[in-house]
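Posting for a labmate who doesn't have an account.
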Amino acid sequence: MTNEIKFTKDSIYYLDKESNPEFYEIFETSNGLIDRYNILMRRLESLDLPSAFETELLLRPELRFKKSRNEINKIGAEIVKLDQEQFVPWKNKASDYIIKPDFKLQNHLSKLEKKVVTSHYIDLIRYRIQQLSDSVRVLYQMINQESDRFENRLSNAKQIRINVIIATLGYLLAIVLAIYV
């Protein structure tokens, strides 16, 4: 999903990388954040949560649930780390750049062309801020949904176990009563 800015030197939109390192750093950092977001989203989508019925076949289902809970917690911690340690500082830097852009544009451009080019690249950064803000929000929603789904399955598994124990005790009681009555 990484995007590269590619304009020929003849284009009015051409922005020299060496003359505009701050802009390119902001943009390239956002590409890294998008890559990290995609990795976390794939991990969330591939979570293998145990079902309530599946755990009845296992001798120690709590180990399977513990493994799933640990994976959810690990992904959740990575999402918080991505948000607080990488995304928020990047967003602040990108927002500051939008407020006070420092583009080094081609000298032969007219004043109007320079405004168009500046507007284009500011809009590009604005779009990327919005895109990453939405992506981080979706990650938080997904981890919360997976956590809720996990808790529901754990609760269902516990309820099934209780029902099996009650049914077994009922059968044993019926057998004992049948023997003594």
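Reply:
Got it, the structure tokens are right above this. The mean pLDDT is 84.
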